[in-house]
User: Which sequence fits this backbone?
């Protein structure tokens, strides 16, 4: 908390001149003021305590001086001493670290309280996920196999029918018929296989 000011040039000049603005002050007060201004307590300038400034104001009023205190304080600054932080107690620091770790652990438990192995087993585990991926993989392979079989049947019939039919329309028609029959047969086998898998579930 501030209890003094750093004296400005105006106050130093007024105190230095014996017959100047502060000439009417009592000797004791002038001596006290000169002693305060002579001591360099800070790197910025001499310090003048507030108690001395109150005495100076009262003396100026009593003497009927035309100079006011605020005029003398032009260029002065309030001195705010630096607050020295006391060293931290190592026991207190260790205790605070313990409390922080405990709070972080409780926060982690609160965040993860809805997750446990029993619920994973109830709603599905990684094994169930693997089973579903394998099932999806089997469906994709079956569809790909169906498309390849139908396309291959069409291509083989189209190329093989050139020895029987000379017209393009007849070759395409025979290839479409054979591809449709092969596709229907493949669908039948696919449906029976899927029925078997669904029955097994």
Assistant:
């Amino acid at each position: 908390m501030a209890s003094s000011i750093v004296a400005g040039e105006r106050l130093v000049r007024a105190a230095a001149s014996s017959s100047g603005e502060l000439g009417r002050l009592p000797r004791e007060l002038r001596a006290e003021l000169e002693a305060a201004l002579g001591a360099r307590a800070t790197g910025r300038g001499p310090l003048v305590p507030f108690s001395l400034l109150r005495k100076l104001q009262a003396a100026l009023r009593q003497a009927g001086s035309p100079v006011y205190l605020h005029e003398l304080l032009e260029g002065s600054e309030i001195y705010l001493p630096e607050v020295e932080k006391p060293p931290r107690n190592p026991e207190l620091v260790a205790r605070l670290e313990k409390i922080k770790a405990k709070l972080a652990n409780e926060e982690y438990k609160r965040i993860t309280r809805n997750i446990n192995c029993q619920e994973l087993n109830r709603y599905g585990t990684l094994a169930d996920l693997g089973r579903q991926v394998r099932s999806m993989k089997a469906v994709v392979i079956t569809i790909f196999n169906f498309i390849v079989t139908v396309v291959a049947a069409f291509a083989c019939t189209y190329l093989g029918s050139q020895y029987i039919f000379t017209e393009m329309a007849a070759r395409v028609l025979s290839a479409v018929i054979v591809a449709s029959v092969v596709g229907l047969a493949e669908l039948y086998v696919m449906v029976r296989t899927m029925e078997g898998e669904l029955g097994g579930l």
Summary: The longest strand covers residues 4-6. The chain has a mean pLDDT of 80. The CA atoms of residues 40 and 138 lie 92 Å apart. The radius of gyration is 51 Å.
